Amino acid sequence: MKTPRTRQGRRRGLALGALTVCVGFLMSLVPSTGAAAAASGPPLSVPQEALDNSVWCDGNVNPTSGKKTVLLVHGVGFDARDSWSWGYQRALTKDGFAVCTVQVGNFGRGEAAQGAEYVVNAIREARERAGQNISVIGHSAGPPLALWAMKYWPDVAESVDDMIGLAGAIKGTIFADAVCVVDKCPALAWQLSRDSNFVNALNDQRVNPDIDVTSLFSLTDEGIQPAREVSSYDGGTNIAIQDHCRPWLVGHVGMLYDGAGYKLALDALNHPGPADPARVPDLCGNPILPEFDALGFAKSGIEGAGKYLGIIGEPFIGAEPALPAYAAG
Asked: Could you state one GO biological process linked to this protein (predicted)?
């Protein structure tokens, strides 16, 4: 009587063992959800529809065009069109690059870590459309947002080969408190002040060393000061325009059309590694970048100024916003 039961139990055991092996094999073919999430960084809080609507790419951003893709990230107030349509976008297209832009929410006047999520999504979108790694150029608050995205989202860092900053507030600016009233400031002003928690978190460790970081800035920038200190990125190549072109008066917005700055950015895009002034012939030969649209610049300047001044309409708060949990540790 015991023998049939033993055989039946043995058969069930063998069947169960085989099923376990099969399930284990199939599970090994599926990536762990936790591991995938860790590899792609923290989840995004901005609705995906808003993120997707913020990205624009020209028709050459595809795997068959043979053109390198450059994503342009604007700063505070000026939107993507105000910042790039009359200058860098035209010049890069003429020089054989494909171009994408991102429109950061609320014209870049909002909380910085949330603004960086727009850059995270834009880099992913541009990389997917291009079918290869891309380069990023940012202006003003654009470089800190882009570097934040590359620091905390590993898949984003792996999608970028060059990061080029123009007048970047990488370590804040002493003028961030200019919009503060009685110890209350907009969130972004707190975050872009010197020695803020946001600035310290951004700069406590370099982004992926595979990314070549070039920071270009002007010593006569009226908004980002002290320029050499706050626009320099530790572990990157930091270039003051006036160290090579004297006398050269370039303001904050002027970095968007400065001829020497554009030549250095182009050098970084066209060569392995960061920009090298010694490689650029006639660096100071033209103060204005090629394809400059003066009428477009004038119109964008007027419209952008209104958007920039809109920061005084942002909520004024009594302390810097807490860092996101992924950056607070």
From this structure: lipid catabolic process
Q: Minimal CA–CA distance to 68: which of 103, 92, 101?
A: 92
Whether residue 23 has pLDDT greater than 70 = no
CB 194 within 8 A of CB 230: yes
CATH number of the domain where residue 53 is located: 3.40.50.1820
The total of structural domains in the chain comes to 1
280 inside domain: yes
Contacts of residue 127, defined as CB under 8 A and 6 or more positions apart, other chains included, come to: 133, 134, 159
DSSP run (H or E) holding 211: none
| C-alpha 271: how far from chain center | 20
The whole model's pTM is what? Answer: 0.87
Task: Tell me whether residue 273 is in a domain.
Answer: yes
Q: Give the CA-trace dihedral at 132, 214, 250, 106, to 10 degrees.
A: 60
pLDDT at 28: 36
